[in-house]
Amino acid sequence: MTDLKTPAIVVNFKAYREVDGEGSLKLAKICESVSKDSGVTIAVCPPMVELGTVARAVDIPVFSQNADPHAPGSSTGWITASMIKSTGAIGTLINHSEHRFENNVISESVELAKADDLITMVCAESVKKAVSVSAYHPDFIAIEPPELIGGDISVTTANPLIIEDTVNSVKSVNKKISVLCGAGVKTGEDVAKAIELGSSGVLLASGVVKSKDPKATLYDLIKHI
Q1: How many independent structural domains does the chain possess?
Q2: Regarding predicted confidence, which is higher, 188 or 152?
């Protein structure tokens, strides 16, 4: 899998206990099954220790949760773009709200990832941040107000204007950048509203990972696409 077609559902596994060990592959297989049955793109971001296992086992887009601004070599403990590429993953998140970088680090991480032909998805907490990172020309920007992450109120309800403003502002810098949204997204209505507001899909985590029935949750998320 070498592309991320939109609209897309991107499921970040984070580091929840539910995806420890074999849990990551089990959830990724569920995502693959729903994606193939529905025709809707569902991408997954498993923990780094399971990235290669998942990427080699499923035929849906697989992303790393992070890429560090380090080239191959003496970089103990850091995650290089070439490592990610070698697992079979097609892209990476950068600057997630739980793994923030300064802008100069974001820029270098995007550049190194692109050099290894990885799709880059940079997270931003505000319209201002989204505009600033647009200058580095990532493939995707995911707008996620931090106060709503992990909560029960979707950004599409709590702050729909931030989605429209981000889409318009980012497109004014580079029309080729696609915008995703996240934070509190849990239902098909949330996804439909996000797309209506101009986003190319959603980035979410707990709504799927911690669901008692991830398959049913995924079908609900995509029912209006």
Answers
A1: 1
A2: 188
